[in-house]
């Protein structure tokens, strides 16, 4: 019998003592200012329990983890037609690489690299205004988490916009290939703000629960997406969720998961658990150093890897 | 309750009627001569049953599926030190691309692209003779499958050797970076012959059963590898098992699997099943067209995707 | 004795009859509307004569030929320090490729690809306003050509700005690497307008005369640049003046030259002649089809290639 | 009036005192053993004089300089059809890069990178035996230089063959694309031996004189190649003669030239001079550090750059 309370507490204690915490993202001041000592973890299980430890109640910038929610919404609006404009393969390169876009004519490799999420933002925009769309995104995430306190951190969004030249480059590059319908400004207005959503581990684990439950949100008991779509989003998280460190993460942890440069990771154990971890120090691939390690230890103690025979 | 007998028979019937069977590999005559109408499927379950249909008893050239067995052996001999010479990330490019080797100084991206498997062959060689090593590989596969009838198809091996200029290029390129200890001739002697192993679906599903059972071979009831290692091999099969079509396969099928240019695929449902399918026609990524489709249908009917909540 | 009057007239007649005129650039309406039948040629010799034929008096959009004048000005203002931010090697790829920028950290390969000319525009801007800088560029070109009628075609500039997403991408990408000091908007304000300068063949050949005369402008009899700098600009035109067709142009024509997407080419015979040709149809590398052919014929009849022993 | 005797002596004295001599090639022992203090220079002028200094009479391994002679022979045998199998553009990458070959389907960028010279060797082979072809190459070079003492250094050839894994990779890679007719072994038999030709500066300057004189060999007073072909070989030397340092060399020196990893450079002043320099230390692009510098100084003092107005 797995005692999750103890396991979560033990892992949090081990992480508090970890000597190598990685490097906090420094490209914008609001992220650079985060204390590298922070660590939080929350596990929502299929029976509705929530186990947490450390700073599980502190909001952090979810950054690219938001790409999971953006993709879920865009699939709901556009269905499989979305895949005409975005691929489904690991990129084999860094999160913000532009090289692949040239050889593949403006079609990003997958929805979880920046270029892919920018196309998703364009799809979400449709003919609406950025403000409306952000309102929808926020409502969606709040509904998933069952918590209206979730907010967009304007300081982060503003800092991203002021320094996000690579993302502006990616967006213009795809625009040149005809893969953005809206203006770059409008699309990035959605993208930068969506990345600036702040959530706690508790909220994030709750919000991701539909991916554990075949698409059903336990808060509302309604289907957010179909079983098939939940499965496929999980698959994309497994092969593409950690940029050029996705293979390593699958090797060590073995769960579909999506990381963000703010140090958060959302990981899914299908049928069993939705997990959020947060620690702001990053490894050399841009994924949370201690977040990855905490998940590796969790999986070792629970047997939750999808590549293991189910634990008895 | 899943009725595997019926499901397997139905899928085989559907595949027999499939209009688009892909293109049979044409680079060597022994493969080009295979009838595209062939289709076989075998499922070995955790309780030791075997369900099969179509040409499940016909031997075919397993080609790159052999990389799973080679990796398993090499990990047993060299342990984690193997990863100093081979990466663990999806390649983002074709199975025989040489580009990545240049920028990454002769370290192949993963053990399932050709370059990676060539380094594995060098590790297996150590200071032995190619003939001895091939004997060991064959014994290993025969033991896994519990069937001494498994053989190396000399005609295929000879044809590979006569035309395998790209593989000779890859091997020499890595040799230039110091990532091969043995001569290119000796290493490729092992590699080409290992790829020429012929197996039936039945034998292959049986041989892969240890990956379903946390490393334990049900034939001998002994551990082939540790639980952790079995999990990790499965993870690599998921992220890297289908070359530049790995993301698509995970998206559609959701099982760790390894394909070969002979049209075979070995897929694992951890704790539940080891599956082999064979149909020689390939899709544009070089993976079996009907083999992939058959697995997609199987997963739809069984709920076996690792990204779904476990079926009740 | 070379009879340039006859040679120029003959070539113009041959070009008028040429069956394959290439494709006129279609990415902006003002260029797409140009009649592909146009052809002009003007040769200014070291003794001050001007030989011309066809539409040598019709203004056309000089586009990338302007990069020669921009580079000349920027070298005058910043000297060799310019080369800390721009390379001097052929790019081996298309004029607007972004791939090389990623691997070389935002340093463009040479000043004649778009990315390089954008950095030159940033250097020209310094702390001035775009309007002032454009005024200086225009004065510089007018002085070189001895003709105040030269103008910037606002329709072209506006169309470039409205559709130049790739250039916006390139600029933002370099900005991300810290290789632009000014805002992207300001830099591209200079760049797009500079590319929209309209000149006749006569004006262009005159304006380029300083590169024939070791840096001395024959109009003013003053040095525009030093002998060394003129030589080096010629060298860059030889190795980098035709994007990924530079080798072919050197092979066929053997003169330092710079082409533009408007169909113009400026070519230099050191000590002997400054040549401008214009024909709007482009070959598959984006260089004037008939302009290149006319220069090839001119060199055959005059022996002017720098790779030939001087004609007696 | 240029006093070449003094200029050559001065440059040799300056080079003897140069503090930074680059790094001697270390990939094979026979090259690694060369004393970095060596420096030689020889200039053959159009009137048949020879000016020399330093170690101009010491034989050194001409390595890639031999590609000029190989190309000349192959053009004589196959004419312009050669260009169906080899490009004419600068490569934008290192001399032994394999990346470009993948995207361009086995067609090397130009005849002066290794891949291109290997295709040239295949063309020279035709249906002959490697030994015969090497005999022809040697006779050709001896005739050009008017000196039967020129030899192939077997120690160098043997060392190249024993360690040339990258070249073996390049050759096999092109073979895979169908761009070699002969076996890799036979082609590289020619290639490695041709690169191992040893010549003195005096012999090399003499051998290159046909490229100064529009194709006419002054020794025999016969045409080695046509005027057009000599011009085009010079053009290729200008744009592609120094690998990924060709732009820099054109910028600094401004002469068509070909370098070799043994530290030799052959440079041509059309109509005026054929120059050989040798100093074994290489710069970071693999070209002779002092050889390049000596040529830069020579051009400064003589005004011989093809990009300068002719000196009076």
From TrEMBL, chains A, B, C, D:
It catalyses: L-glutamine + H2O = L-glutamate + NH4(+). Keywords: Acetylation, Hydrolase. It holds the Pfam family Glutaminase. InterPro entries: Beta-lactam/transpept-like (IPR012338), Glutaminase (IPR015868). The keyword NADP does not apply. Its EC number is 3.5.1.2. One of its GO terms (biological process) is glutamate biosynthetic process. GO terms for molecular function: glutaminase activity. Substrate binds at residues 64, 114, 160, 167, 191, 243, 261. It is an enzyme of class 3 (hydrolase). HAMAP family: Glutaminase (MF_00313). Belongs to the glutaminase family. Homotetramer. This is Glutaminase. It comes from Sphingomonas aliaeris.
């Amino acid at each position: 019998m797995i005692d999750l309370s103890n396991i979560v507490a033990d892992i949090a204690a081990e992480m508090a003592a970890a000597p190598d915490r990685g490097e906090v993202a420094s490209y914008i001041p609001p992220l650079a200012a985060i204390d590298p000592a922070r660590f939080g973890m929350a596990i929502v299980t299929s029976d509705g329990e929530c186990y947490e430890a450390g700073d599980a109640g502190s909001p952090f910038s979810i950054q690219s983890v938001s790409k999971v929610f953006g993709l879920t919404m865009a699939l709901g609006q556009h269905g499989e037609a979305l895949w005409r404009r975005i691929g489904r393969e690991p990129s084999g390169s860094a999160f913000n690489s532009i090289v692949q876009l040239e050889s593949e004519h403006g079609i990003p490799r997958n929805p979880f690299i920046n270029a892919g999420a920018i196309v998703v933002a364009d799809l979400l925009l449709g003919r609406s205004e950025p403000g409306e769309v952000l309102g929808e995104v926020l409502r969606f995430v709040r509904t998933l988490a069952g918590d209206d306190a979730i907010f967009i951190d304007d300081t982060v969004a503003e800092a991203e916009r002021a320094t996000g030249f690579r993302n502006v480059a990616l967006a213009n590059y795809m625009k040149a290939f005809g893969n953005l319908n809206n203006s770059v400004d409008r699309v990035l207005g959605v993208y930068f703000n969506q990345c600036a959503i702040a959530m706690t581990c508790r909220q994030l684990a709750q919000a991701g629960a539909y991916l554990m439950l075949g698409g059903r949100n336990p808060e509302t008991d309604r289907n957010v997406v179909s079983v098939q779509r939940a499965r496929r989003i999980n698959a994309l998280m497994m092969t593409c969720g950690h940029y050029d460190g996705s293979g390593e993460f699958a090797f060590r942890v073995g769960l579909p998961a999506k990381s963000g440069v703010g140090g958060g990771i959302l990981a899914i154990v299908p049928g069993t658990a939705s997990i959020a971890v947060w620690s702001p120090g990053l490894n050399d691939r841009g994924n949370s150093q201690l977040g990855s390690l905490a998940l590796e230890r969790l999986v070792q103690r629970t047997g939750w890897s999808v590549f293991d025979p189910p634990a008895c």
